[in-house]
Amino acid sequence: MNAAELILNPDGSIYHINLLPEDVAPTVILVGDPGRVPKVSNFFNTIDVIKHKREFITHTGWFNQKRITVISTGIGTDNIDIVINELDALVNIDLQTRMPKEKLTSLNLIRIGTSGSIHPDVHVDDIAVTGLAVGTDAIGMYYDHQPMDHRLLPSWAYLTRRYPFDLRSFPEPYKEGITVTCPGFYGPQGRILRAQASYTLPIDKLHEVEIDDLPFINLEMESSAIYLFAEMLGHKAISFNDILAQRLEGKFSGKSARSMEVLIHAVLRWITSME
Hints:
The chain is α/β, with parallel strands linked by helices. The protein has a single domain (21-273), classed as Rossmann fold, CATH 3.40.50.1580. Helix content is 19%, strand content 31%. It has helices at residues 36-41, 77-92, 223-233, 256-273; strands at residues 27-31, 46-53, 56-63, 66-72, 93-94, 99-100, 108-117, 127-135, 146-147, 158-159, 175-181, 210-211, 214-220, 236-246, 251-252. A 5-stranded mixed barrel has the order 7-13-11-8-14. Strands 5-6 form a two-stranded antiparallel ribbon. It is globular and about 50 Å long. The chain starts with 26 loop residues before the first strand and ends with a helix.
């Protein structure tokens, strides 16, 4: 790969996320909101890396003897394409030779994000875990993916594999199901303000469908790409969702700051319980 494909900054850091290989911990928490990065790292015992470029803010530190990186991705699967490809390059490509390393590293990629429920049994302020993710964005068309054919989903949708983690030690109750990743917040998720959509997901019917004994439970904008890239590149990924909206009931959380804090602390405690 040449200098226009794997782009480095003058200090040797990778182009967009502005990190060096030593800045990345084995476990990486992905958050969409740059403001959520310090909300995660406030739980750390120590912080040894703080870097910022564009919407990509990174803190790396220690929580109960585990080194953890938290990085903001911004919104959408196009940003996930940037962040995970560059994280993978930092651990699996020799930046001097621009050649893949012989021994590859597998990262734990853990999303902490917000989402809207489309299932009557998944309520505002619940924790939802993405068992499978379905992408209705376009990113899958550019990579090797598993297409799916379902009458309630667009023809370009793709399906990802189940996460490879053991959640028996997760310290909070959660609901698990299928997450639909959308390429937008309004029309693609059935929110119509003034711009009329030519296609919207049938959110009132999807919860009646199951794949591998999992129901469709929520909509958001990143998880399918995280699972897709993890599968392609040999990393392990899981997505935790703080449910802020109940779309079937038209409700929105009144205590989202508290429910997000609970989720962040639960994920950090779970990470320390992993082997």
